Amino acid sequence: MRYIVGMARIIQKDIARETGYSEATISRALADSALIGQRAKQKIRRAADRMGYLQTNRNVAVITPFHFYSGYFGMVATALCRELAGRGFHPLVVDISDRDILEELPLCGAFSTVAVSGFEQWWGKEHSWPLVCVNAKPMHLDNIFMTGSDDAQGMTLLVEHLIRSGHRRIFRLSHTISPTEINWGEQGRTRVFEELTGRHGVESRSGCCEENNTSILRELHRALDFSATAILIQTENYCRRVISLLSMLGIRVPEDISIATWEFPEEAENITPAPTYISQDLNGIAVRACQQFTRLLAGDVLRQDELVEYTFHPGETVRILAN
C-alpha cells in the first residue's frame, strides 16, 4: 500500500522491512492505534522519521457527529476542509460512529465538530495527535484546544438590542437537549441570557422545543400566555417556522411581537420580514482553528482557546416600544 504524503511516496513494506513488523502493524502504529504498544510505536516512528514520512504527513481527520453532511455541522466541516486544503493538508471527513477507522489511518491530527462535550476526553486517552475542537467545552488536555464562537458576546448583542428597543418581557426559545447531552454552547448562551435579564430587571421565561412544528407551537403558546413582547430564538433554523406559525395564529411580526434570533445568513436572506439576527463567522472559526492546529503541530505551547465574535444584522423583526 502506498501513502502519498507531500512530494514523497512512502511504501509501508519498506518500513516493515526496516523494523521487522508486519504492514498491518505499521499502519496501526502510524495511526497511533491503542492496539500497538508504545515500544513498537517508537521503533516504527523512528524508522518512518528517517524515511521522511512523519515530516511530510499532512493527513487530517475532520470528525462530525452524523453520517450525513448537511446543516450546521456540514457547514463547519466544509469551512474546515476548505481552509485545510488551502494550507496543503489532506482532510477526510469521518462520522463519529465510524471512529474506529482512525485506528487504521496515518494522520497528523484531527478536528472535531462534535458539539457535545466528552469526545475530547476519549481522544486524549486514545491518541497523542493534536486535536482542535470547534464549539465544544475547553478541556485543556494535552494537545487538545478549542476554537469557537463567543456565545457570551453574541447573546449580549441580542439581549441588549431588545432592551434598548424597550422590551421588558422576553421569552427565550431553545432546542431540546437530551439528559445525556452536555452541550457547552447551549449552556453558555442560557447562562448569559439569565445573567443579563436579571441584571437589567427584565422579566423572562424560557422554553425548549424539538425541531418540529408541534413542539415549536406549544412553546409559542407559552410565550403568548406570558404576554412576551419579544421572542429570542437561541438557535439557528427556527426563525422561519416561528414567524409562519405566529402568522397562522394571527400574530404579526414585529407589530404584535418582536423576534431576535441566531441564524445563518443563507437562511436569513429568504425570510420575510428580514430577521434581526446574529450569525457565526464559520470561515473565521476555520481560519483560527487551523492556526491553532499548525501551532500544535509545531510543538508550540498554547495558552488559551480562540473565540470568534458574532456579527449582528439589524433587520425588520424588532419593534421599538415606547418607554
CATH T-level fold name of the largest domain: Rossmann fold
Structural class: alpha/beta
Report helical residue fraction.
40-55%
Biggest β-sheet: count, sense, barrel? 6 strands, parallel
Question: What is the rounded Rg?
Answer: 24 Å
Topology as a string of helices (H) and strands (E) = EEHHHHEHEEHEEHEHEHEHEHEHEE
Please state the overall shape, judged from the principal axes of the Cα atoms: elongated
| Beta strand count | 14
CATH architecture of the largest domain: 3-Layer(aba) Sandwich
Please write the CATH class name of the largest domain. Alpha Beta
Q: CATH H level of the largest domain: which superfamily?
A: Response regulator
Which runs of at least 5 residues are low in confidence (pLDDT < 50)?
A: 1-9
Distance between the termini: 73 Å
The number of domains is 3
Biggest sheet, spatial arrangement of strands = 4-3-5-6-7-13
Give average pLDDT, whole number. 85
Overview features:
single chain, 323 residues, alpha/beta, 434 Repressor (Amino-terminal Domain), Rossmann fold, six-stranded parallel β-sheet, six-stranded mixed β-sheet, 14 strands, disordered N terminus
Task: Write up what this structure looks like.
With 323 residues, the chain is an alpha/beta fold. It folds into three domains: 2-55, 434 Repressor (Amino-terminal Domain) (Orthogonal Bundle), CATH 1.10.260.40; 58-149 and 282-309, Response regulator (Rossmann fold, 3-Layer(aba) Sandwich), CATH 3.40.50.2300; 151-280, Rossmann fold (3-Layer(aba) Sandwich). It has helices at residues 12-19, 23-30, 38-50, 53-56, 71-86, 119-126, 151-164, 184-199, 213-225, 239-248, 265-268, 282-297, and strands at residues 2-5, 8-11, 59-64, 90-95, 109-112, 131-134, 144-149, 169-175, 203-209, 230-233, 258-262, 276-279, 306-308, 311-313. Strands 4-3-5-6-7-13 form a six-stranded parallel beta sheet. Strands 9-8-10-11-12-14 form a six-stranded mixed beta sheet, sandwiched between helices. The longest helix is centred in the first third of the chain and has 16 residues, at 71-86. Residues 1-9 have low confidence and may be disordered.
